[in-house]
Amino acid sequence: MEGRRIGAAISIPLIAEGAELTRAVLEEQERRFVDMLRSILEKAEQHGATMRVLGSLAFRLACPDFKRLEYDNKRYLTDVDFVAYGKEIDRVQDTFFDLGWSENQNVLRLFGDKRRIFYHPSEPVHSDVFIDKLRFCHEIDFRGRLEIEDVTISLVDLLLEKLQIVEINRKDLVDMMMLLRQHGISEDGSDVHQIDGAYLASLCGSDWGFWRTATMNLRKTSKLVFEYLDPDDVEPVIMRLRFLWRLVNDAPKSLKWRARSRIGDRVRWYREVEEVERN
Fold first, then answer.
1. Dihedral, CA of residue 190, residue 191, residue 194 and residue 198, to nearest 10
2. Quick one: CATH architecture of 1-152?
């Protein structure tokens, strides 16, 4: 597959204008983003701030053997985003300010207890910092969970980050395939090196809306695996998708879940996502 040339009107962070999105170019961009991430986390540790990366960069770090899927699909990185604890947000702010980053004051004024956005001093890179929770189509609560991994959010939280998207796109489905090819499923959550299926099942068993969106996206992923994965990679991903499907459907359902399930799709079951102006 030939590299796609960047048009003059498109600005991609840490990639020279006019460059082709070859594997070598994408790997170099990733290396520079990882260096940037490392400097942020080192400074955060100095300030005592607990920060974990999520999004595309986190998926690459969590899936070293299969991130080639990103390169094959010409996926480039645009930002370095984090989750942090609200009780430590002043330390997070000091982390970025010490590195010379500036802050979006409008987002601070309107959403400062939920989200902050910082800008790199010299590169066209921004960092969204989500406070305690990811609040999009469905809420993902990270309180007490950021210590599970040292750099990224946990494997199951990476999966949840994608499963909660109602109008999911193909790049997010590819991220899920990559994660499910790299990592197995732990049925009881005892293996930190596997995706915690018990935690996912528990969330889906308590919230019909999340169950509805998650199972919808598991189904969508299974339909696209043959299009994106090599033949040898298809079977492990299909098996893990089926295992997750069984876990979330067999999990005990709360009374609230059962009551909401009777209403079904007649009433919107997810939150409409507002765009945040970053400029």
1. 0
2. 2-Layer Sandwich (3.30)
